[in-house]
């Protein structure tokens, strides 16, 4: 009888630890249900390095994540959907820029706020975008002496 009680207690502890771990992973990656914040869309010429889960930052502070990434077959541009945290209002003339943390750093999307007093509504399109700059293309331009 004592062995059965020990097995049940150990099994319950393992199950509780596994459920806690799954809850932590879901909350850390944003999988724990939809955010009640703002959803925005932007079209980039190049979204190189951006994936679902990539940080959205303003002034270096994370304000959301990329929730969707698709190729627009009409324009051949990357359609990126952002999930912005609840309570953050973004001026409707803001720009979205694919940026890098350095030469070997990760990629993130920087929202550069504009000066408008009007704010983006849920589901709005960010008009002003700047895609990723390829380091290889920059090096080839520099080595080749291309002025253009």
UniProtKB/TrEMBL annotation:
Domain Mce/MlaD: 38-114
Cross-referenced InterPro entries: ABC_MlaD, Mce/MlaD, MlaD_Phospholipid_Transporter
PANTHER family assigned: INTERMEMBRANE PHOSPHOLIPID TRANSPORT SYSTEM BINDING PROTEIN MLAD (PTHR33371:SF4), INTERMEMBRANE PHOSPHOLIPID TRANSPORT SYSTEM BINDING PROTEIN MLAD-RELATED (PTHR33371)
The protein's name in its UniProt record: Outer membrane lipid asymmetry maintenance protein MlaD
């Amino acid at each position: 009888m004592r062995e059965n009680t020990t097995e049940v207690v150990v099994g319950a502890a393992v199950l509780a630890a596994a459920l806690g771990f799954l809850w932590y992973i879901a909350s850390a990656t944003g999988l724990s249900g939809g955010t009640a914040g703002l959803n925005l869309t932007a079209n980039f010429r190049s979204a190189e390095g951006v994936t679902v889960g990539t940080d959205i930052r303003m002034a270096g502070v994370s304000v959301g994540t990329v929730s969707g990434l698709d190729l627009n077959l009409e324009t051949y541009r990357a359609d990126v959907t952002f999930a912005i945290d609840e309570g953050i209002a973004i001026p409707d003339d803001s720009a979205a820029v694919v940026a890098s943390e350095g030469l070997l750093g990760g990629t993130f999307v920087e929202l550069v706020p504009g000066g408008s007093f009007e704010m983006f509504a849920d589901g709005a399109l960010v008009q002003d975008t700047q895609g990723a700059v390829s380091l290889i293309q920059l090096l080839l331009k520099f080595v080749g002496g291309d002025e253009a």
